[in-house]
Specification:
By secondary structure, the chain is of the alpha+beta class. It is 17% helix and 32% strand. The structure holds CU-O-CU linkage and copper (II) ion (2 copies). The site of one copper (II) ion has 6 residues, from loops.
Length: 537
């Protein structure tokens, strides 16, 4: 087995030194045998103090993903501490019951630190939820899913190439709660499975192997109003899912698996072609990373019914009540705050610029205690052929790249795909002598990237509602493989935006002023600068 999982050679052993959380419900439960941090259990209304001490030889800070806390308690990258320093967090748990995450948030180091194990779950409970008497104790199981690569010594290896940074860093082994090959021995009764996608980049399409639909009772921000039954559910990095898994009536000895089912459209089309033909220039890293291709069919964990019982709780018809805003209540019904996704050479951007601390634009200044309409869209998706090459200044590089056959390929792709910036930049790389073979291939990939890729967009602060989605005609076929796996009826803080998709959300900005980041939760994208600040003032 992988009992000897150790941090990779280039990284020091890191750990959270967090004080045990005090308070009536503040017990700390461990995930035995895991590299993940302890599961923190908090209660709504509880006042929490956590002393975070860093033993890392590089900057870090902790963010409480999903919790609504003051800006200075939110783990903004500007608050990083150094080796030996302590950051004291004090906040009141304002959230309703739900599953959240703590993870590092230093800019440009998040991917590595999260990968090496600096993360854990936070379960908040409240009175409304307790009254439901949902399965608890041994019948409530956290399922933190991560994919990892291991080197020849069986150590986790985080060594992203430029290609990994563009696509996200994918592993070829699936770990649940920090352990491989998870198998759950269950009784024939209902369980509550609390899913959290803690992967850096991998998106899952969760489904039962025998075709049983998935009954969802909650998402990122807590319980839904009523249960929803779906054929499968999409789970992107940073997203959570509360699942009612009813094994009652199952025979003793029966076995089935929770799988990630096949889907398309998450990665740029061209990347697939690249893998077939483009090995030379890109090196082995890409193949290694795609040993378990994104969108392929693979098991996540196995369930074995080992005990029968006739004593199972019933699924409540009504789960919870929470405030839902209407367009009439938002400050800007006709003028949504834009969150434009763009993919540029060697960069992934929001609103056309890479992250720079405090670089807030007029539309990123939000009056406190308002509710806002936001629109997330692909800024360059679906533009006409040739448009980009003609109008982007970087398009000129594409032409220069044309001196080399490979560079020409990059530039040519671009022209055809209508985005001069990407192909132009990549094509230009073709001048790099010995590198030209590989970079020419990247030019080709750049062409494919014009079709864009999926991004899980996460906004700090309070949870939001997803009120509408729209998809471009060109992407409809791929979209059909994922479209029945979204749950828009609950409160979210991370939303998967598929290629060509436009998503409208309503989000409150209440209680706390200050800088709060929003970013892509494909962590490699975030590290590349696909992050921006909101200044709530
Ligand atoms: Cu899960 Cu900004 O974070
Ligand atoms: Cu967050
Ligand atoms: Cu992204």
């Amino acid at each position: 087995g992988l009992a000897s999982i150790l941090p990779g050679p280039s990284t020091q052993v890191v750990q959270y030194v967090a004080q045990r959380v005090k308070g009536p419900d503040g017990t700390v439960a461990e995930l035995p045998g895991s590299y993940l941090g302890p599961l923190l259990r908090l209660h709504r209304g509880q006042k929490v103090r956590i002393n975070f001490r860093s033993k890392l030889a590089e900057p870090t800070i902790v963010h409480w993903h999903g919790l609504h806390v003051p800006a200075v308690m939110d783990g903004h990258p500007m608050h990083v501490i150094d080796n030996g320093e302590t950051y004291v967090y004090e906040f009141e748990v304002l959230n309703r019951a739900g599953l959240h995450i703590y993870h590092p948030h230093p800019h440009e180091l998040l991917g590595k630190q999260l990968y090496q194990g600096l993360a854990g779950g936070i379960i908040v409970n409240d009175e409304e939820e307790s009254k439901l008497e949902l399965p608890s104790g041994e019948y409530e199981i956290p399922i933190i899913i991560q994919d990892r690569r291991f080197d020849a010594q069986n150590r986790m290896a985080y060594v992203p190439t430029m290609h990994d940074r563009m696509m996200g860093y994918y592993g070829d082994r699936i770990l649940v709660n920090g352990r491989p090959e998870m198998a759950l021995d269950v009784a024939s009764r209902a369980y509550r499975l609390r899913f959290l996608n803690g992967s850096n980049a991998r998106i899952y399409k969760l489904g039962w192997s025998d075709g049983t639909p998935i009954t969802v009772i909650g998402v990122d921000g807590g319980l839904l109003e009523t249960p929803e039954t779906l054929p499968y559910v999409m789970l992107a990095p940073g997203e959570r899912l509360d699942v009612w898994a009813d094994f009652s009536g199952r025979a003793k000895g029966s076995e089935f698996t929770l799988r990630s089912l096949p889907f398309q459209g998450v990665l740029p089309k061209m990347a697939g072609r690249m893998m077939g033909g483009g090995m030379g220039g890109m090196g082995g890293g890409m193949m290694a990373g795609m040993a378990l291709p994104v969108g392929s069919d693979f098991p996540i964990f196995k369930v074995r019914v080992t005990r029968t019982t006739s004593d199972s709780p019933k699924l409540p018809g009504h789960l919870s009540s929470f405030k839902r805003y209407t367009l009439a209540e938002v400050a800007n019904p006709a003028k949504p705050i834009p969150i434009g996704i763009s993919e540029a050479p060697m960069a992934m951007l929001l609103n056309g610029r890479p992250y720079k601390f405090d670089d807030v634009q007029p539309n990123e200044r939000i009056p406190v205690d308002t509710v806002q309409l936001l629109e997330i869209f692909h800024a360059h998706g679906g533009e006409g052929g040739g448009h980009g090459a003609a109008t982007q200044s970087e398009g000129g590089h594409g032409g220069a790249g044309g001196d080399k056959p490979q560079g020409g390929m990059g530039g040519g792709m671009m022209g055809g795909m209508g985005h001069g910036m990407m192909g132009g930049g990549m094509g230009g790389m073709g001048h790099g002598g010995g590198q030209s073979g590989g970079m020419g291939m990247m030019g080709g990939m750049g062409g494919g990237m014009m079709l864009s890729m999926a991004h899980p967009i996460h906004l700090h602060g309070q949870q939001f509602q997803t009120i509408s989605r729209g998809i471009g005609a060109g992407e409809a076929e791929d979209y059909a493989t994922v479209k029945d796996g979204f749950i828009d009826s609950g409160l979210k803080d991370t939303v998967l935006v598929m290629p060509g998709e436009k998503v409208r959300i309503i989000k409150p900005f209440q209680d706390f002023k200050g800088l709060f980041v929003y970013h892509c939760h494909n962590i490699e994208h975030e590290d590349m600068g696909m992050m921006r600040d909101f200044l709530v003032e």
